[in-house]
Amino acid sequence: MNVEERKEKLAVYAAAGEDLAGALKKFPKPMRIFKPGPERWSIQEIVCHLADSEANGYIRCRRAIAEPGAPVMAYDQEQWVAGLKYQEQDPEDALALFRLMRKMSSRLLRSLPAAVWANTMAHPERGPMTLDDWLDIYTAHTPAHIEQMKATHAAWLESQKGKAPDPETSLYRQPKK
């Protein structure tokens, strides 16, 4: 990846916290636990997954910077969703954590000398990864999940067709007098 491409990716990477917060505002809070299918994630689970993924990414990038070539941990995201009870977690806390870690990593990454971007980490499933490879993955991760959240919302809207509107979840609430 050249310097200009990296700079563009870093801008997208840095904006992910705001992008996620903006997307989350579009979904009524009570519908965020809706699951479009038994094996599908709710919006709340997606947000909690993003926070935990960011925590792993936070450590991975630092490991590649400080300990080039060192192994990084893999994790089973489905086991984390169930075992950590994402459906019961506070998505606002998860969002705040995601935003803080992303902000800190963005600052760190912008300060790195060019040579550090070739540093590697040893991922047990992906094999050797450079810091540039890591940036590619984490830059695409949040936008992909925002699209997943939109699809979940669309499935929820479809499931509401023919039902009486719930004033707590209606997108078209009547103004209070």
Number of distinct helices: 5
CATH architecture: Up-down Bundle
> Could you name the CATH topology?
Four Helix Bundle (Hemerythrin (Met), subunit A)
In this structure, how is the largest beta sheet organized? Answer: 2 strands, antiparallel
Between the first and last Cα atoms, what is the distance in angstroms?
Answer: 57 Å
- Count of individual domains: 1
Order of helices and strands: HHHHEEH
Mean pLDDT: 91
Strand order of the largest sheet: 1-2
* CATH level-1 class: Mainly Alpha
Pick out the low-confidence regions. Answer: 170-175
- Beta-strand portion reads under 5%
C-alpha geometry: elongated
Radius of gyration: 18 Å
Structural class: mainly alpha
CATH homology superfamily name: dinb family like domain
The helical percent reads 55-70%
Secondary structure: number of strands? 2
Task: Describe the structure in your own words.
The protein is built from five helices and two strands; from the N terminus they run H-H-H-H-E-E-H. With 177 residues, it is mainly alpha-helical. It has a single domain, classed as Four Helix Bundle (Hemerythrin (Met), subunit A) (Up-down Bundle), CATH 1.20.120. Strands 1-2 form a two-stranded antiparallel ribbon. It is elongated, with a radius of gyration of 18 Å. The protein starts with a helix and ends in a 17-residue tail after the last helix.
List keywords for this structure.
177 residues; Four Helix Bundle (Hemerythrin (Met), subunit A); two-stranded antiparallel ribbon; 2 strands; 59% helix
